[in-house]
Structures are given as C-alpha cells and as structure tokens.
C-alpha cells in the first residue's frame, strides 16, 4: 500500500474521478477499465499502450489500480492549474457537434461512455450547477470556470 495520501477537501473529487474509471465498482481499476476510460475521454491507446500505462501505475503489481495508486499518479496533474489552451482542448473533446457548447446529450454520452448512466433530469441538474447564463448548456467560459476553480 502506498503511504502518501492526499488529505484535503479535494479527496472527494479524486474519489469521484476514481469511481468513474472503476466501472465495475470492484475497488480497483483493471487494464480494460483504464483503456475504456481513456477512450471515453478522447485518448485512443492500443492494448499494449494501455498495459504499459497500467503497469506503471499498478505500483504493487497486484493486477489492479487501487485508489491510493490512482491518487499517487493523478494528484499532481489533477490539482495543477491548466493553461487556456489545455482547457480549450478538453472542451473541444466534449463538444462533439462543435457548436461551442457542451449540451445535455453530449454530457450524457460522455458519462455513458465512462459507464455512468444518468437520467435527463440528473444531467440537467449537473449542467445547472455550472450554467451561469441559464441557457441550459455549458459554454467554454463556464467550462473554464469549472476547471479553474480552486
């Protein structure tokens, strides 16, 4: 087990990110779950690349990535400040129809590819949490504010 732990208010956010990858809720991320999650985020990797990434993260070599290993690898990048170009690139990956907004159906599809199915009402509530202008969509500015918080 890894001794370093992130012990801060953002622990919950890291747990939620881990849970998005751990689609079978086993408490560990498999190679296929890692590859699937990367694909859902628009990052295409071969089976061999996925195995190599997995091996680098699976520090105790038990065949699954536990939460502590996940935190060890992602915490620094998770909490870093993103450049405007990085934010724009992430936004473009989610804005599938390229209309300048992340709409309910796009968010629902992204989450479904991550193994999380939400009702239309739940998706609307998620969007409402960041939708400052009340148009029911997430603009690049609203997305940037969400990513840059902290």
From TrEMBL:
InterPro entries: Centrin_CML-like, EF-hand-dom_pair, EF_Hand_1_Ca_BS, EF_hand_dom. It comes from Adineta ricciae. Keywords: Calcium, Metal-binding, Repeat. The keyword Repeat applies. This is EF-hand domain-containing protein. GO terms for molecular function: calcium ion binding. It comes from the Eukaryota. Residues 9-44, 45-80, 82-117, 118-150 form the EF-hand domain. The lineage of its organism: Eukaryota, Metazoa, Spiralia, Gnathifera, Rotifera.
């Amino acid at each position: 087990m890894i001794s370093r732990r992130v012990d801060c208010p953002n622990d919950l956010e890291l747990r939620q990110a881990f849970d998005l990858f751990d689609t079978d809720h086993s408490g560990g991320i498999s190679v296929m779950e890692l590859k699937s999650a990367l694909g859902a985020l628009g990052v295409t990797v071969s089976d061999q690349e996925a195995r190599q990434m997995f091996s680098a993260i699976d520090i105790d070599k038990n065949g699954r990535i536990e939460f502590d290993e996940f935190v060890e690898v992602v915490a620094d990048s998770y909490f870093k400040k993103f450049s405007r170009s990085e934010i724009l690139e992430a936004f473009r990956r989610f804005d599938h129809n390229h209309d300048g907004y992340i709409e309910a159906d796009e968010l629902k599809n992204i989450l479904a590819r991550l193994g999380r199915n939400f009702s239309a009402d739940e998706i609307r509530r998620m969007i409402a949490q960041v939708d400052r202008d009340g148009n029911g969509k997430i603009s690049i500015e609203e997305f940037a504010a969400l990513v840059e918080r902290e």
